[in-house]
Amino acid sequence: MNFPGALIGFVVGGAAGFLLTETVGAFFAFVLDRALDVDGAPVLLAAFIAVPVLSALLGAAAGARLKNRG
C-alpha cells in the first residue's frame, strides 16, 4: 500500500463528500426553499456524517490503488 497516494485520496475524497453534502443542503435551501433540520431527523444527521467519511475511505482506497499503477 502506498501511503502518500492513500493520504491524498483520503483528503480529496473527504473534501468531495463534504462538498456533496453541502450541495444537497444548498439545493434544498435555495431551490426547494426548505431547510434541512438535522436535529429532528437522526437518519439525516447520520447521512451527513457518513457521506464524507465513506467518500474519504473510498478516495483513500482509490488513491492507493492508482498510485501503485503509475
UniProtKB/TrEMBL annotation:
<keyword id="KW-0472">Membrane</keyword>
<keyword id="KW-0812">Transmembrane</keyword>
<keyword id="KW-1133">Transmembrane helix</keyword>
<feature type="transmembrane region" description="Helical">
    <location>
        <begin position="43"/>
        <end position="64"/>
    </location>
</feature>
<feature type="transmembrane region" description="Helical">
    <location>
        <begin position="7"/>
        <end position="31"/>
    </location>
</feature>
<protein>
    <recommendedName>
        <fullName>Major facilitator superfamily (MFS) profile domain-containing protein</fullName>
    </recommendedName>
</protein>
